[in-house]
Amino acid sequence: MPLTDTAIRNANPADKARKLFDGGGLYLEVAPSGGKWWRLKYRYGGKEKRLSLGVYPDVSLKDARERRDEARKLLANDIDPSEHRQAQKAAKEDRVANSFEVVAREWHAKHLPSWTDKHAETIIRRLEMNVFPWLGGKPVADITAPQLLQVIRRIEERGALETAHRMLGCCGQVFRYAVATGRAERDPSGDLRGALPPVKSQHFAAVTEPDQIAAVLRAIDGYEGTLPVRCALRLAPLVFVRPGELRNAEWADIDLDAAEWRYTVSKTNTQHIVPLSRQAVEILQELHPLTGRGRYAFPSARNRKGDRPMSDNAILSAMRRMGIEKDEMSGHGFRAMARTILDEVLGFRPDYIEHQLAHAVRDPNGRAYNRTAHLPERHKMMQDWADYLDKLKAGAEIVPINQSA
Description:
With 405 residues, this protein is an alpha+beta fold. It contains 16 helices and seven strands. The strands form two sheets. The protein has a four-stranded antiparallel beta sheet, covered by helices on one side. A three-stranded antiparallel beta sheet has the order 5-6-7. Helix 7 runs antiparallel to helix 8, helix 9 crosses helix 16 and helix 10 packs antiparallel against helix 12.
């Protein structure tokens, strides 16, 4: 007789496993422990085999019969249900192992040794926020150009066009890695060339005329905010490093006795030396009693432990409060200002200037100069630069750039 729900519920365990048959090879096995498992007994290739169909009551009598019927249809088509299940499981595991997210994280891990910590964190965070929720679970080989474009468009539509371009390029690298490792046939991002509008280049505002520079420097000297922000503002034109490098300056990297600041350039992951002028050393000596016990020279005002650096906008916000508009001067603008004046007014060699800007400079044989190249000359250049800025603030008569030749 076929089984009923009542008979199954009332089936008590015995000293040995009991089998309650339903029909078509389906039976319920009741273990001595009380557990109840659905089994299917069938023959394939002349051998008797069994297939597990689930646990009662998670799998009801109705569900078990449907699973039995599906298995018998496979047998009718000369397919072993057990081997079919194993093949499906292997295919699922293969899809998971070759999903876009798995391949992307593997690609990310491969590049970690050559990236800075900040860059690596930015890349994975952008993928997690912008791509993985929609493409992460898909097999990397199955993703099409329209599917990728839909994800990239979502970024563009929220007004982050530059991020959209960056993510498209990043996805392209992941797909090319998948091709190289045999998990995809091609990179669909190549089909999306021209699909996004170009990003309009934006030059950082900078003042380069001596009278304008003097006004900015005097405004900075008159800033009445916190000492770390005031010192960062005063130091920025003297060292003209990238804003992120300045706010992340660590005391462990600064040698006031040697008048040098040595750190790793965030953009290129290379070692760099900033010779410190007498004026720069004095600013840091003034700051040291306040922040010298912490990690950062310019810690966040919201973090009492001093283990977080100043925020990205601290210097820019201070400049705006002083009345220096964003189209007049930016944090990056000090770099353009220094490059122009050092070359056109003070007459220093362009390669000295490029070294100090932490740009890639190569010798006549095409080899990259090391960080100590021309260090004595750069020490002199940085001191002359600081003295020149002092003269501007003091109101010395300076010939405009366009009349200096």
